[in-house]
Design brief:
With 362 residues, the chain is an alpha+beta fold. 41% of the residues lie in helices and 17% in strands. It is globular and about 60 Å long. It starts with 23 loop residues before the first helix and ends with a helix.
């Protein structure tokens, strides 16, 4: 049996995924749907800090983040520019409603591919805090964000500008913290937790979002009148459609998620798990139909974009052809084509109208 830490029994990756530039086709898509905007701050500008202070958590333990300091004139200029960026992602650039906000802190993380900056925005009247992120623009990540926006129950605000990517903060309890502090709480319905994990696992697999270890997704916990409602949300989209291993796109197979996989096995019968899986497949196709024109353009660009080496595409297409029992996968020459074929596979199971009739460019 494969080690759950190494999907399909393969050794864990030792090198970072390369960054893929946002090409003309994807850039045109982003402009068409108002994702590409002029920004007063770029990623490279934020790299001009003069001092670094290690950031600790509430318990005084070191984190993966450092607080960065800029000289006085630059910090004053950055404060106004960062408020403008925040206004763009929150209120379409209306500066009249953010005058009372200020950029309280800029943090920098050297962990992971995107080496992001995290900006903390504070309301001067009530000290309420919010965050957003500025990263290097990577085509894989942009496709991941947009597919999440179109095919999941979640909506995402992000902006690109040249080689800069701005993302809103995704609030929630990180998966690793949820496992340690929340998973076995008596006031949480175990079936509801397991149900959302099954749905999340299927969403990742169909749209080929990889590396969903527990620290790369969050649990959104909402009190209800009798219980709590939950939703699992991805918060890292760097590994969208790059890896050639099928189980890399199934969160259940990572050792970091072993406690969640065992929890589902304990609280769900196989028939019930299949029911929830089919529910999510149906919902994904309904979302695809609602965003048919936009999704068609996105997948058409993704099919032409070399965001993964041919050998990884070929390895994955053979595995998916076996999994779904469909040789049509063997004609796919890109990760975008494989995402399209995954949607076609679940359409056949669910019995929705043909995708070619619903989504242009497919």
């Amino acid at each position: 049996m494969p080690d759950p830490a190494t999907p399909d029994g393969a050794p864990p990756p030792t090198r970072k995924k390369p960054t893929f530039p946002v090409g003309p086709g994807l850039r045109g898509y982003l402009r068409a749907y108002k994702r590409e905007r002029d920004l007063p701050v770029t990623y490279e500008r934020l790299r001009g800090f003069t001092e670094v202070i290690p950031l600790t958590d509430a318990d005084g333990k070191p984190t993966l983040w450092d607080t960065v300091i800029y000289d006085g004139n630059e910090m004053r200029s950055l404060n106004e520019a960062l408020k403008e960026v925040y206004a763009l992602i929150k209120v379409d650039g209306d500066m009249s409603v953010v005058r009372h906000l200020y950029a309280d802190r800029v943090d920098f993380c050297t962990f992971g591919n995107s080496t992001p900056f995290r900006i903390r925005i504070v309301n001067a009247y009530n000290d309420n805090q919010d965050y957003f992120y500025i990263k290097r623009a990577d085509a894989s990540r942009v496709y991941g964000l947009e597919l999440e926006h179109l095919l999941s129950p979640n909506r995402l605000n992000f902006i690109t500008h040249g080689s800069t990517l701005v993302e809103e903060h995704i609030p929630g309890v990180p998966g690793d913290i949820f496992i340690n502090r929340w998973l076995n709480r008596p006031d949480l319905s175990p079936v509801r937790v397991a149900k959302e994990l099954v749905k999340f696992n299927e969403r990742c697999f169909v749209r080929l979002l990889g590396d969903m270890r527990s620290y790369n997704f969050v649990f959104v916990v909402t009190p209800d009148f009798e219980d709590f409602q939950l939703r699992v949300r991805a918060m890292d989209f760097d590994q969208q459609s790059y890896n050639g291993r099928r189980n890399f796109y199934r969160p259940q197979f990572f050792k970091e998620n072993a406690a969640l996989a065992l929890f589902c096995a304990k609280h769900l019968r196989l028939e019930t798990a299949n029911q929830y899986l089919r529910e999510e497949q149906t919902l994904m196709l309904q979302r695809a139909e609602l965003a048919a024109a936009r999704l068609g353009v996105l997948l058409a660009e993704m099919e032409l974009d070399p965001i993964s080496p041919p050998e990884k595409v070929h390895l994955l297409r053979e595995s998916l052809a076996e999994h779904y029992g469909r040789n049509e996968y063997l004609r796919c020459e890109s990760m975008g084509a494989l995402v399209r074929e995954n949607l076609e596979s679940i359409r056949r199971h669910v019995g929705r109208p043909a995708l070619s009739e619903l989504i242009p460019n497919l």
